[in-house]
Amino acid sequence: HSGLEAPNSNEASAMPLVVAYAVNCGGSAAAPFVADAYYSPAGSTFGTSTSIDTGGVLDPAPMAVYQTERYRTLTYTFTNLTPNVGYKVRLHFSENYWSASGKRLFNVFINGTQVLSSFDIYLTAGSQYRAVLEEFNARADGSGQIAILFSDGTADHAKINGIEIAMTAPAAPTGLAATAANGQITLQWAASADAISYRVQRA
Questions:
Q1: Which residues, at least 6 apart from 124, have a Cβ–Cβ distance to it below 8 Å?
Q2: Among 135, 76, 80, which Cα is nearest to 111's?
Q3: 144: which of 134, 167, 177, 180 is 20 to 30 A away, CA to CA?
Q4: CA 57 from centroid of its chain's CA atoms
Q5: Average pLDDT of span 127-135
Q6: Is residue 61 within 8 Å of 33, Cβ to Cβ?
Q7: Residue 96: which residues within 8 A CB-CB, separation 6 or more?
Q8: What is the pLDDT of residues 177-192, one digit of tens each?
Q9: Whether the Cβ atoms of residue 105 and residue 153 lie closer than 8 Å to each other
């Protein structure tokens, strides 16, 4: 009704992702995604001009990313990350060739750990030309590297449309305790995984 205000909604909060890498696999730059790079061996590329339905993906890549792909068994290697620190790996897919499930089944490994087994893009998306996002938490190795292997499975070839490597915010420290002394206060807390420094605020 005019002049009446509803009560406040529930409070919600989120931290934006800070993207270290965003790659358009098999294609040219589509800001903020850069042109395809970081892969070995070359594999093959495929593209389509058909529109891709990105409606089911939270924070999708640009349309052009889903319209291009690099396929066959290959590895994307991302370097110069912070060693032993956690990242979010976002893998963007769209099945642009097959129009039925069971036609493409492949595997994905991140730094040697299998994260997708007999992955079927069509089955996951529910149709052809529909975007799918698979997200994983991964830790850069001691050299500051994340390697993503796309391995041919039991049907056709592995493929990938786009990759993002994003930094994630560490969890808040726990167990904060303050001890008063003569003219000073000592603070202690449990370390937070992946934190490299702390900011102490007072009010």
A1: 93, 132
A2: 76
A3: 134
A4: 12
A5: 98
A6: yes
A7: 46, 48, 50, 52, 66, 67, 69, 128, 129
A8: 888 888 888 888 887 7
A9: yes
